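Q: Convert this sequence to structure tokens.
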Amino acid sequence: MVPVPWPGLLLGCLGLLVSPPAAATEFSPSLDSDFTFTLPAGRRECFYQPMRKEASLELEYQVLDGAGLDVDFHLLSPKGETLVFDERKSDGVHTVETEDGDYMFCFDNTFSTISEKVIFFELILDNMGDDGQDQEDWKKYVTGTDLLDMKLEDILESINSVKARLSKSVQIQTLLRAFEARDRNIQESNFDRVNFWSMVNLGVMVVVSAVQVYMLKSLFEDKRKSRT
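A:
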């Protein structure tokens, strides 16, 4: 069953998959990233994200396809402490205030021996330091603008507000695509199931009809034997 064409959803995530269960993969710096990957049965895949002190890490995940639509999720701090543990959940949203170091998060499908899972997750990083530096750069041009009706600080605030709302819109659209993919998987699975059991019922009806015709025919056969 194919939700939205998977090549369009993978977003280069094949390079992020880890072959050994204990290995980890690093993301390129980004304020908002989303990925989709396939987690084989009996496997655990881990990734890590470098973070700064007093920043914010928001992570949302969804199981798009696979029996049960569930997976185990772990989020660990740079010190190895477990911050979040979700057991056999289909989706989740978690936000943590971070410190300097690499945060590791893992998706665990070792409880499943047959079914692979298609997992979508999105990372949103806030207060990573770039915005603060940009604001410091803007302050160099603020001097002498008191006579203007709108100061450069107001322009910067308006731009940041528009930027934040656009980012939120992109995030919502990405989540809606993920929900659509999962719902389409469920619908196609139900469609295949209905077709299968319809064919089974049709086969049973044909067999029963043949048996009934044979039995009715045998009732009207002349079974008397001619005497010699």
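The chain has two domains: 28-128, 159-219.
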